[in-house]
Structure formats: C-alpha cells, structure tokens
Specification:
heterodimer, A: 116 residues, B: 109 residues, mainly beta, six-stranded mixed sheet, 0% helix
C-alpha cells in the first residue's frame, strides 16, 4: 500500500510556543490530505481538509488561526499549532487518499503532542 | 445528522471468534471501511465494502448490508495481538470519511 510519513512522532513543547507537524505522501500524489485529532479513548475527529494549492477547509469549532495548514505540494502538508496550550496536547494524525476518493485512507504514524 | 454506532468495548478469548457490529446513518454512501488501531498508533486499513455481502481476507471478514445500514467485522482464531480498537468509517456522498468511536477489543488467554 501507499506510504504516508508523519514527523515528528513525539514532541514536547512549552506553553506559548508553536509546533509544526509534517505529513508526506511518499509514493503517490495526494491532492487532498486530512488532519485529525484524537483524545484518549475517543475516536478520530477531523480538524481540517488540506487541498494542494488552496486554502484548507476547517471543521466547525476548529480555529484556523491557531491550527495553520499549508499544502504547498502534492506530497507535503504541514500543520502548525500556534501558541500551544496544555489543552492542545493530543494525538494528531494526518491521512491522504489517492485522487478519486474511493480508496482507503492511508495514515501517517501520528504525532503525540504534549504541551507543558 | 450523520451517525455511526459501534459497541464501546468487547471481550473475547484467544482462539475464539468475535463479531464487531457497526450501524450507520449517513448522507449518502460510497463505501464502508474497517480500521485497526493499537494504542498510541495510527489506524491501519483492514477492509473496504461498497457492495452487499461478505468480503473475506484471511482471519478477518467484513459484511455489508446497505439496505439495513449495517456492517460487521468478523475476526477468527483470535490472537493476543488482535487486542486493539476497531474503527468503522463510512464514506458519505461528499467522499468525507465519517468515523465511529471505535470498539476496544480485549483478548483474554
């Protein structure tokens, strides 16, 4: 199957700082990538849909100025958590699908963010 | 609204068979996925059903009934490594994935 690489896998940062998470599709082109957040013992919650070359579409309740998404190429999307606070501590996962939308979603390894 | 229901937790014995059910109500339907997620890891793909019936893949099988809005994941010959959460997800009419909350499966020796 296709490979999606997410980096870093774990990050600890101080409150008030910013953290960038990268998501790369290694062997296919992904015009659309998805960013999810997952709190312990809860399901994946879609934060935003990232479209190459255009603005991301954010889900209701997700602050676009706090969670900056850049999808500058067909293989790379980044999520920047700005001015992080302890309540932003979570598991962030990116996902990408081949164009057409019918195939399964391939997930990155996830990033465990801890804000202290 | 869109809704996917699956049991929160199930327990089964090593070597046995377990069936995890999923019911859904979504705006449109373009397929149903099952994913496995071990604690602290990203989900991994198990199966995709878009037509009614049973899809078998080794020890895992997935069934779909579109008229009933129902699917199940069947795991045979359970192994300890099968202890994980199993996520049901539906691709709606806009090709957005709608996720269930997941079923935590506990395997006992």
């Amino acid at each position: 199957g296709a490979v999606v690489s997410q980096h870093p896998s774990r990050v600890i940062c101080k409150s008030g700082t910013s953290v960038k998470i990268e998501c790369r599709s290694l062997d296919f082109q992904a015009t659309t990538m998805f960013w999810y957040r997952q709190f312990p013992k809860q399901s994946l919650m879609l934060m935003a849909t990232s479209n190459e070359g255009s603005k991301a579409t954010y889900e209701q309740g997700v602050e676009k100025d706090k969670f900056l998404i850049n999808h500058a190429s067909l293989t790379l999307s980044t999520l920047t958590v700005t001015s992080a606070h302890p309540e932003d501590s979570s598991f962030y996962i990116c996902s990408a699908r081949h164009t057409g939308g019918h195939t399964e979603a391939f997930f990155g390894q996830g990033t465990r963010l801890t804000v202290v | 609204g869109q809704n996917i229901d699956q049991p929160t937790e199930m327990t089964a014995t090593e070597g046995a068979i377990v069936q995890i059910n999923c019911t859904y109500q979504t705006s449109g339907f373009n397929g149903l996925f099952w994913y496995q997620q071990h604690a602290g890891e990203a989900p991994t793909f198990l199966s995709y059903n878009v037509l009614d019936g049973l899809e078998e893949k080794g020890r895992f099988s997935s069934f779909l009934s579109r008229s009933k809005g129902y699917s199940y994941l069947l795991l045979k010959e359970l192994q300890m490594k099968d202890s994980a959460s199993y996520l049901c997800a539906v691709l709606d009419s806009n090709y957005q994935l709608i996720w269930g909350a997941g079923t935590k499966l506990i395997i006992k020796p």
